[in-house]
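Appendix B, record 7
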Amino acid sequence: KFRSVAFVLLFDLGSEAAAATAVIMNRCSASIARKVSPIEFKVDRPFLFFIRETKQDLVLFHGKYVSPPAAS
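Structure tokens (predicted):
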């Protein structure tokens, strides 16, 4: 089993978010699970984003991405 918890704090001057995931294992043989490839998300322009709760269609958090970080 996997258990994930996340939170978003909103302040006048910004926001803070965090997440944690725990793995709960039982003593038994494991089934072979297929590997999931990571998703690559390239950003090359500004955009808005929203975190929504879909059952009640509520916007829980929104933000905007303005520009990519400078290359190092």
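Remarks on this record: The chain has a mean pLDDT of 72. The beta strands are 2-11, 14-23, 47-53, 58-65.
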